[in-house]
Specification:
- By secondary structure, this protein is α/β, with parallel strands linked by helices.
- The protein has 8 helices and 10 strands.
- The chain has a 6-stranded mixed sheet with strand order 6-7-8-3-9-10, with helices on both faces.
- Helix 3 packs parallel to helix 5.
- The structure holds adenosine-5'-diphosphate and magnesium ion.
- Keywords: ATP-binding, Nucleotide-binding, Transport.
């Protein structure tokens, strides 16, 4: 089996001295759809930030399809698409340009970039917004734009940080079916969430993070069976 993502003994202490990750390790098989489930403050975004090279780690290693994110940064970044938790667009850039600019970061030629922008904006239902500035979009549209932007270089691994938080139920369902389709077509997906229901609906495997530690990693099936037997106490806070 090919390993899409390998995280090994990852530690992060923020500058104020807070230890957000206390040495986490987990692996994701190629083709998997994995949930990283945990309550607010558990360390999900810190983990995703490090995987996407936006946050510096204190120690540990991350490799994406066998490429170490420090040693083989250029190769590793080609294989991963990131949907951050917070919107981080240039407010004044037009929707179509955001995708073309992103494609440029990956060395994609202009003609292909234009084709990819059209393909992914259409897939995410944003083609008619292509000439609007991103600040004009609704929250749900911005969320979809982040997904389109993450896919423009057609990565093998897509990582989404709480993509459905604050999203209405209709959009949540359409995003779920979009992600399921994408996974069926071969994209490995990792999604962070604090909704067990979402993880259960979408994912084949699960890692649970709390207080900067992975407390469980297994198949969704095994996890749910254990929950049924009530031998596993899950305390993920009241949000769930
Ligand atoms: P989650 O995404 O699971 O809600 P985060 O990774 O965002 O959790 O945060 C994990 C912990 O690290 C939290 O206690 C949070 O307050 C802390 N933290 C996050 N970012 C910073 C930062 N830039 N500086 C200091 N502490 C931070
Ligand atoms: Mg977070």
């Amino acid at each position: 089996m090919t390993i899409a993502l390998a995280v090994s003994d990852l530690k992060k202490t923020y500058s104020g001295g807070f230890e957000a990750l206390k040495g986490i390790s987990f692996q994701v098989q190629s083709g998997d759809f994995m949930a990283l489930l945990g309550p607010n403050g558990a360390g999900k975004s810190t983990t995703i930030g490090i995987i996407s090279s936006l946050v510096n780690k204190s120690s540990g290693t991350v490799s994406i399809y066998g490429q170490d994110i420090d040693r083989d940064f250029a190769a590793a970044k080609m294989n991963i698409g990131i949907v951050p938790q917070e919107f981080n667009f240039n407010q004044f850039e037009k929707v179509g340009d955001i995708l073309r600019t992103q494609a440029g970061y990956f060395g994609i030629d202009q003609k292909t970039a234009a084709e990819r922008a059209e393909k992914y904006l259409k897939l995410l239902g944003l083609w008619d917004k292509r000439d609007d500035r991103s600040r004009m979009l609704s929250g749900g549209m911005k969320r979809r734009l982040m997904i389109a932007r993450a896919l423009v270089h057609e990565p093998k691994l897509l990582v989404l940080d709480e993509p459905t938080a604050g999203v209405d139920i209709e959009l949540r369902r359409s995003m779920w079916s979009f992600l399921q389709q994408l996974n069926k077509q071969g994209t490995t997906i990792i999604l962070t969430t604090h909704y067990l229901e979402e993880a259960e609906h979408l994912c084949r495997s699960i890692a649970i993070i709390d207080h900067g530690q992975i407390i469980e990693q297994c198949s969704m099936k095994a996890f749910l069976a254990r929950l049924d037997k009530e031998t596993f106490v899950l305390d993920l806070g009241q949000d769930i």
